[in-house]
Known about the structure:
TusA-like; about 30% helix; TusA-like_sf; about 80 residues
Amino acid sequence: MEAAKVLDAKGLSCPMPIVKTKKAIEELEAGEILEVHATDKGAKNDLTAWAKSGSHEIVDSTEEDDVLKFWIKKG
């Protein structure tokens, strides 16, 4: 999946992955994809709720080697 921007939020704990994701997605145009890498296990629920409340869409997510990866389409 082609992301317009990749955000490295590894090693950050709540609420920083959300704060950084919010700032990064503001730099994108509607419909563009932001790829987020996080290690905070709470990021899965946090980002899902945040995306829904902001009319964004998590189009995919994976976990490999304790790194959560999310692809968020800007609404």
